[in-house]
Amino acid sequence: MRILITGVGGPAGASLALQSRERGHEVIGVDMADTMTARIADEFHTVPAATDPDAMPALARIARRSGAELVIPTVQEELPLIAAAAAEVPAPVVVSPFAAIALAHDKRYTMTALAKAGVAVPETFDGMPTGNGPWVIKPRRSRGGRGVQVVEESAGIELDREFELIQEFVPGDEYCPQVYRCPDSGEVTVVVLEKLELREGIVGNALGVLRRDNGEASDIAAIAEDAVVALGLVGPIDLDVRRRANGEPVVLEINARFGANSAAAPELLDAVLAHAERVSGLESAASDSAAGLEEAA
Ligand SMILES: Nc1ncnc2c1ncn2[C@@H]1O[C@H](COP(=O)(O)OP(=O)(O)OP(=O)(O)O)[C@@H](O)[C@H]1O
Ligand SMILES: [Mg+2]
């Protein structure tokens, strides 16, 4: 299959490109920047930033000219756009419906929607918290862990509520469950990965992950599945989950795309490719039978 991967020079995209090539597929990589990592693709094109009005037309053009048979976005900022523009891309796009993407794209909306659905999340405040911290202040939109601060007291904090939120600091072990939810059957596969060390000590990106199999972290798998179903997400999803001091897991955020650690859960790409092959098989069977009917008529 010819697979177009966006953000191919980033951690999620590069890992996905490598996994696709290892499985014998051809990768058309696109990225804003032409880097050594981006050249992991068989064919590479630079594209405008997601915020550029030409971003989606350019992607559709490249997909058409390169004969892409599947498009897998990995760039966080482009997800709402690509979910909205999916029908204009001349190949199936691996993305959830726009309404689900919009909830996952803003951590404030994610927290509210999950709490409403009965999925545990860190207590997230409307006003300033009172009592004892620590608390976490962070951007409502994912920025690769940038701008996350742990604060001990709320006095003197100025919060830009349009862009930031303040919530309970959750001190326990951190996981990044890798989820696939089939868009047709709704069947869910979860691989629980535990983050081994965080780049900035108590918060941040994982420097390594450990796969937790055989029900070792079945509560983490369960909350990941509940969260994905509650938001109506499908396809590949990467979550951040932490344990409270009492061990109870809470969902920190949901990235509605392949994450940086998907190579440790090859089930995800396997499922995406199997689904794409099934859909294209059904489509060609439908067009064969349409052609057959025309001939008979
Ligand atoms: N409420 C919280 N309690 C404890 N730690 C937190 C909390 N919120 C975020 N963190 C820490 O900060 C990290 C980054 O937060 P978050 O995932 O929400 O931001 P991000 O910009 O989306 O980061 P990335 O894209 O790297 O996942 C988390 O992985 C976790 O280690
Ligand atoms: Mg995160």
From TrEMBL:
Q: Which UniProt keywords apply?
A: ATP-binding, Nucleotide-binding
On whether ATP-binding is a keyword of this UniProt record, the answer is yes
InterPro entries of this UniProt entry? ATP-grasp, ATP-grasp_PylC-type, ATP_grasp_subdomain_1, NAD(P)-bd_dom_sf, PylC_N
Q: Which PROSITE patterns match?
A: ATP_GRASP (PS50975)
* MF-aspect GO terms: ATP binding; metal ion binding
Q: Which residues form the signal peptide?
A: none
Q: Which Gene3D superfamilies match?
A: 3.40.50.20, ATP-grasp fold, A domain, ATP-grasp fold, B domain
Question: In this protein, which residues make up the domain named ATP-grasp?
Answer: 95-280
Q: What is this protein called?
A: ATP-grasp domain-containing protein
| Native source species | Gulosibacter macacae
